Amino acid sequence: MTLEPPLRKNRERSDHGIDSGGGEPSGGLRAWLVWGTAATVYLLAMFHRNGMSAAALHAQERFDIGPALLSTLPMVQLVIYVLLQIPSGLLADRLGPRRSLLISLGVMAAGTVLFAVAPDAPTAIAGRILIGAGDSLVFLNTIRLAALWFPRRHYSLVSALTGLAGGLGQLVSAAPLSALLTAFGWEVSFLSAGAVNLVVGALVLLVIRDRPDGRRAQTHALLSMRESLAEALSHRGPRVGMAAHAVIMVPFTVLGVLWGYPLLEEGYGLSSHTTGVLLTGAMLLPMSLVPFLGRIPGHYPRARKPMGLGLAWTVTLVWLGVVLWPGGLPPLPVIAGVILVSAFASVLAPSISFDYARDGLPEQRTGAASGLVNMSGFTSVMLGVVGAGIVLDLGLSFQAAFVPMTLLCLVASTAMTLLLRNRRSRAAKK
Q1: 15 — phi, psi (to 5°)?
Q2: Where is it located (predicted)?
Q3: Among 33, 51, 156, 385, which is least packed by CB within 10 angstroms?
């Protein structure tokens, strides 16, 4: 027997997002302003996270390092990001989004400044560690604000729009950062990025509040980390979200974090400008469709499953085509199409993965589940980035470099299919 949500006929809605009826939040103009400020923080975090792709060749020259050590720069950042996902999720439940976002901006600013002035690779790695630590708090708290300020049916749309903000951050970290590095050099470019963190921090202080009624977000019953993880993993939704995120967002993120520019510049002989335009252009079409497609899981729950499986298997199959293409890398138009498909999936990934993550859990304890989902995706990204670096360091081709990532996508797509199929099988038995 399924419990339906309470009727909301008599709910008084405010344009400022305050629900006077004691039920779920009503959204409104104030909610969009609060979320928009948090999304700006996420955009900035994505700029920091993906900046190594445009800066890869500059970093190789500045620190005199090879492909394997080059991949260490984003790898350590991702390792810290992944390791801190569960603590960050619990912190989101305890401190609230406003305090967590302020901490993240301060830590990312410190890491960016250290990275800008680093004289050698070890110091640069320390800077990337700080950036990863600050970054780990951002996305979870942005979608946490979506859960606190918007009705449940709008959550998938706001999650998708959060992914759109991240896509804008990726765009800024591609061609614009490449042009900035070429025009002003390493230190000026990254010191300027660090200064932006402080400006955005002031905006967070001014605009963001944890809840529509002004109270700081807190749980009704604080659970230990072990209890929080056990609760999240006991529900099928978070497990499906983990599998979905481990494939849908992975390929384009691997390209954005590090290997997009080297693939197109060294693998296809494109100029830095052309590469930036291609990677930027690949994001524009899916980003324009997010406001329409992102609302589907929330408004049409039955469409969530085919949408998620369709994205997962499409991404997996197109990359299988790349690594199995006879005679080396496929022609440039083919790889451009694969990049476009990957960007499309990456932008829509949050609307699927994090909508599943909330299934069966109270709003006050979604942090751990969201952390698990994010951790699964970026563990796959980390393995894909490092795997490509190791393969290239062995002297193999770019085509071979993407085999580890493609195998991870195949495993995750299969796991997602089995999880959803098992549910249908159990329902049929009942």
Answers
A1: -65, -15
A2: Cell membrane
A3: 33
Mean pLDDT of the residues in the chain: 81
4 assigned to some structural domain: no
pLDDT digits (tens, 9 = 90+) for 20-69: 344 677 678 899 999 999 999 999 998 888 777 778 778 888 888 877 77
Q: What is the DSSP-derived secondary structure letter of residue 13?
A: B
Instruction: Residue 368: give the domain boundaries.
Output: 29-216+235-429
Q: How far apart are CA 410 and CA 375, in angstroms?
A: 18
Helix (H) or strand (E) holding 227: helix 225-233
Which alpha helices (DSSP H) does 234-331 contain, by range? 236-248, 250-254, 260-262, 272-293, 296-299, 304-323
Q: What are phi and psi of 175, to 5 degrees?
A: -60, -45
Contacts of 112 (CB under 8 A, 6+ apart): 48, 127, 131, 190, 191, 193, 194, 197
pLDDT at 238 (0 to 100): 85
pLDDT value at residue 13? 34
Please count the other Cβ atoms lying within 10 Å of the Cβ belonging to residue 326. 5
- Give the whole-angstrom CA distance, residue 270 versus residue 207: 43
